[in-house]
Amino acid sequence: MRVNYHIHNQYSSDGRGSTAEVCEVAAELGFEEICFTNHAEALSPAGDDWILDLVEARQRYEQLQHEIERLQPEYPELRILLGAEYEYRPEWVETLDALTDSVDFDLIIGSVHVVDGEQISGGAVSNYFKTRDASEAYGRYFETVEEMLEWGGFDVVAHLDMAKRFGVKYYGPFDAKPFESQLGGLLEKMVSKGLGLEVNTSGVVQTPAEPYPSLGILKLAREAHVATVTIGTDSHVPTSFEQGWDVGEQMLQRAGFSEITLFSHRIRKSVPLITEPEEGE
Ligand SMILES: [Zn+2]
Ligand SMILES: [Zn+2]
Fold this sequence. Notes:
- The structure is a single chain.
- By secondary structure, the chain is an alpha/beta fold.
- It has a single domain, classed as Metal-dependent hydrolases (TIM Barrel), CATH 3.20.20.
- Helices cover 36% and strands 20% of the residues.
- It is built from 9 helices and 13 strands.
- The strands form 4 sheets. It has a 7-stranded parallel beta sheet with strand order 1-2-5-6-9-10-11.
- Helix 5 (134-151) packs parallel to helix 7.
- The longest helix is centred in the N-terminal third of the chain and has 18 residues, at 54-71.
- It starts with a strand and ends in a 9-residue tail after the last strand.
- The chain binds zinc ion (2 copies).
- One zinc ion (ZN) binds at residues 85, 111, 113, 158-159.
């Protein structure tokens, strides 16, 4: 099923493209469901820091919600959903929970981009990796993901091994093996808390040249009985809407997943990953 559950547009500080432009591209490419997952936090006016403000964020999501309501009738073959990408930072949890209570989201994805106060996936990432070896850099990242799972104020974990995006530049290709027991713990916690896993295909066009997470981790997720799985391209401009999507879909199949999860008002439903052609076609 052609679903893209991780998209940013002009309502993310780091995104571009109007809501109409994104819907048009999605419809042209034959997508059946898309979910806008703009960042809750916004870049400071100076552009050097991220700020989370409840009132500002709520207004931004409501504006997008109105645009979706206006556009939906024009696209009868495309379901357009309102989601959010929440950045886990201990000091933001309370505001994020309040945001969840005040906006009617279809899906919330949870992310870690900052570990011990340092950026790991954008901006000045070099400090984090330069001052740590691979074991510490990935280990601390996964520990922070575990803290996020403890909080659990979202539906699906975004880009589970995101630290490899820049980690591969410092340590070479990412190998999940040394972190298997830590990852096993994470996946177990996800299952016990009812949280899902995302296959994020932006990694296909970035340095790792493979989705987040890697096939090995996806297989571990399957063994751990993670039942909620989504797919998204994490596109920030309409021209990259479909980036890596086919690779992600194939990887889900290779890992043994035959279903994908759809969301509506944060209620989930599993559907076949591959839709069989109808009789007589
Ligand atoms: Zn992200
Ligand atoms: Zn994103």
